[in-house]
Amino acid sequence: MNIKKVSPQILEIKKMKQLNLFDKLLLTEPYNIEIMYQKANPLNQLKKQEVAQQIYIDIIKINPKHELSFLKIGDILKDQQSYQQAQQYYEKCIQINANNSAAQFGIGECLRATYQYHHALHLSKNLQFHLFKLHRVNNLNQLYHFIDAAKTFTFLFYKLRFPILLQMYLSRSFIFPHSLINEIQI
């Protein structure tokens, strides 16, 4: 008996058992998105893409922000060579989570499959620029949190009349430069 022939059959039997379990669970919780999603994945692997795709669509009807369902539908459509539709689902996924690299890769694959190399290159450059801007926004966000903390600190010490403690803290100029305190005073 050939092991290579047995292994896919065993995997298929396991997936069918999983599907039966998910069907039973869905009888008690018919709108449980996690169970629905877990049911659709083995269906997709068993080459029952239409059924899996319908489950992903049902999940999106329940939760329009379920990014993984958009991603999976994009993957199914890409495998069916419906590249334009697949790209639309990948873009919806990216609208929900701009950092979803699988969706970004999916768009690139769709563009490659339709010979849109120039557009794929442009998209790659825009993506790199977007990630750079996102990194800068995160750094600015951290700076604003620091400034808010400094304002709160200054407010508490001035309003609660602890000028001696404030002066002691300000003497640590490497932590709180006077120029920063002057800018953030309330």
From TrEMBL:
The keyword tRNA-binding does not apply. Pfam families: TPR_8. TPR repeats lie at residues 67-100. InterPro entries: TPR-like_helical_dom_sf (IPR011990), TPR_rpt (IPR019734), Ycf3/AcsC/BcsC/TPR_MFPF (IPR051685). Keywords: Repeat, TPR repeat. PROSITE patterns: TPR. Gene3D superfamilies: Tetratricopeptide repeat domain. This is Uncharacterized protein.
